[in-house]
Amino acid sequence: MSRTYKATGINLKSIPLGESDRILTILTRECGLIRAVAPGVRLPKSKLGGRAGLFVVNELVINQGRSLDRITQAETLESYPGLSKDLSKLTAGQYLAELALCQALSDQPQEELFSLLSEHLSRIEGLSIVGDRPSTTQVLPLLTQGIYHLLALGGIAPQVHACCLTQCPLTPDFQSLNWRVGFSISAGGTVSLAQGNSPSNSGAAGPKLDPSNRASPSVQAPTLPRKVDRQLNAVELAILQQLTAAELPQETHLNLQIQGMMGERPSVDQVWVSIEHLLRHYAQYHYGQSIRSATLMDTYIHSSRASF
Q1: Where are the domains of the chain?
Q2: For 138-170, how does the pLDDT look when each residue is reduced to its tens digit (9 = 90+)?
Q3: What's the DSSP call for residue 43?
Q4: Residues 182 and 193 sit within 8 Å (Cβ to Cβ)
Q5: Which fold has domain 4-79?
Q6: Phi-psi category of 159—alpha, beta or left, where left has phi over 0 and alpha has psi -120 to 50?
């Protein structure tokens, strides 16, 4: 005898089943990630048809089956229609959905993940595309912060305010064009590039080494990881540190602030592209799988580079 249960969930993935059904992958508040059959949704007059779309949030009644659950009722609560009106917004939403799928658990409540994903989808949907800049480049800041917040919720966000090895704070130096900090994907974030990687050379106070005590490993200076994947300038580090806030500053204020720091350096849009790529590679490394929607985002970015 089947068991019926209720859940509120957002559709993150859909694949056809048979001639008229679909299998939906749904992130629910109450039960975590579930896969359920939406019967008859591909038929022209299906009552469930519009409720099976991507990013539609439904209040569901579901029959538990032996292999796949089956949706019997669905009442739509939210649908994010603005995402489907702009391809860059839609792609950004799919990107975040893929990250959510990487960390969502089954048979466990996923209230925080559900709420965080919904919040970032709402921010992207509500973005007003203005001016002559391509919509893709305007979406990138919100997408990039969404990526960081999802990584943080999963407990794997890169450390960006301090050196991973010394734990000494890192402050961007905008006065020096040659100032750099390392970023190591395997080590988990930013790494001081000061000589010896010692706390005293990183611009912050730290424990002094006693050269007479050579036997104790606790006083040995940490060494750089074998692989520093990239070097970041002051602007790039500043943007990474901005991502940790609950919300980004207003775009106009943020761009003026960054442009004031940059002088003759690459454009703001190019910097956001660089940071998104960095977090993408970081996420793919720590999740152990590629993000397919990111490839489509690259296509839109490349097609709009002439406008940068």
Answers
A1: 4-79, 83-157+244-308
A2: 999 999 999 999 999 999 999 999 999 999 999
A3: S
A4: yes
A5: OB fold (Dihydrolipoamide Acetyltransferase, E2P) (2.40.50)
A6: beta
